[in-house]
Design a protein that fits this description.
With 204 residues, the chain is α+β, with helices and mostly antiparallel strands. Helix content is 34%, strand content 29%. Strands 1, 2, 3, 4, 5, 6, 7, 8 and 9 form a nine-stranded mixed β-sheet that branches. The radius of gyration is 17 Å and the shape is globular. The termini are far apart. The mean pLDDT is 93.
């Protein structure tokens, strides 16, 4: 089984198609954050927007969507990664001439949550393009894993042969752009989570 992409909820796509196009007509946004305005404009295409259904389609698609899982320190301290994470959102990554943008909807309600031009959006798309070129020893679905308390975002190939690529992090022991096995990640992140939890207890 190759690396696959998840099919996004139609209700979430409809929500973004309604909420985002007005942003594209904002002159102030175009001046301050042009990538966000241009990405928002893509959603005016509605049903004609090209959503990547496979890695091979990422390069030419208007958007690539992925589930977003969140992992808490309590689960990480127990030695859990994907098996301790919960689905919280969907990310719709759009490439523009001014940079990549992630528009996000809540998993539970399909309502619009945020739109951001964080560097992790572009890194997610570039990582998928690299994997599409055959540079990955992994087997599963391409999703995102976030550890908010550690300001860490990862591309997670969720499946039979899992791999994690760091998209953004504040953890000194991790390297952005590097791919890790679950065991390698836990070796760095579990002690970090335990330390944060101890400090929180002392502060409380």
């Amino acid at each position: 089984m190759p690396i696959t992409l998840a099919t996004p909820p139609e209700a979430a796509a409809a929500e973004l198609g309604q909420r985002l196009p007005p942003l594209a007509r904002s002159a102030a946004l175009e001046a301050r954050a042009p990538a966000i305005g241009r990405a928002a404009g893509r959603f005016e295409l509605k049903g004609n927007m090209r959503v990547a259904r496979s890695l091979a389609e990422v390069a030419d698609a208007d958007v690539v969507a992925s589930p977003v899982y969140a992992l808490g320190l309590d689960q990480l301290a127990k030695g859990k990664l994907g098996d301790g994470a919960r689905l919280t959102a969907w990310s719709w990554v759009i490439a523009t001439e001014a940079g990549a943008v992630s528009a996000e909807t809540l998993a539970e309600t399909n309502r619009f949550a945020q739109i951001t031009n964080a560097a992790s959006a572009g890194r997610f798309r570039r990582a998928l393009l690299d994997m599409a070129a055959g540079n990955a020893d992994a087997d599963g679905e391409a999703v995102q894993l976030r550890i908010p308390a550690l300001h860490t975002s990862l591309l997670w190939i969720k499946g039979r042969r899992e791999v994690y690529e760091v998209l953004d992090t504040s953890v000194a022991g991790l390297q952005t752009g590097r791919r890790y096995t679950a065991a390698e990640l836990l070796k760095v992140l579990k002690p970090e989570a335990e330390s944060r939890l101890r400090n929180d207890t002392l502060d409380g």
